[in-house]
Amino acid sequence: METSAVARLVALGIGVLLVLAVTLGCFYVVEPGERGVHVTLGTMSEQFVAPGFGMKLPVITEIRRVNVQQDTREVAAECFSSDLQQITIQVKILYRIPEESVVSVLRDYAGHPFEKLILPRVQEATKEVTALRTAADIVKSREQVKASALEASRLKIGSLLVIEDLVIEDVALSRELEAAIEAKMVQQQEAEKAVFRMQQARTDAETLIIKAKADAESIRIQGEALEKAPKLVELKMVEKWNGVAPQVVGAGSNILLPLAQPAE
Asked: Among 39, 71, 120, 244, fewest CB within 10 Å belongs to which?
């Protein structure tokens, strides 16, 4: 009897565990930022499952999840410039999987499309863009290179994935090339300074010429005025006289200023 009772208890426990397993296997939860896909006996559903709580067939159906939040990966692209200089560009890729692509990405890329889809196409696009520019131009115009590489990457990847942005974090050159570019930039800066000094000197000279012409014109106008009205000089002197008799009167002057008479 005791052995039989123990056997019944073991069987009951096993039965309870099976029921719990089957019952719990009927439920699933898809977290926010994820989308799920039903896979029943190897057959994948054509519709994704939205975040939340749901039920499924136990044992024969599973829920595979795909992250649809934005992800960031860093890659290196070994490129050549139009002047055949080797350049290594470090690129940060910001991308996400749109809802409508969840089933395709899960079926074709096991839910992880970066290595097989994004990486090779971004590297290819970056190489194509840098091949059209010189090494010095690539260093000086990162934003233009980034914009062109981003546009080309989106065209190559298509609508399956969304490339939010590309960020060029570093452009690595050889030491010799860096020194050559730096020397060229210094020469350009010195040339620009020389041009500025020449323009400044030309402006100063033109200013002096204009001032000299203005002074000459002023003298000419005053001379003509004196010729037409010789008494004008005497009038001006009288207007500016401070009431003190001059100690010296110039020769040929017709101006007679009354002198103060001594007091008796």
From this structure: 244
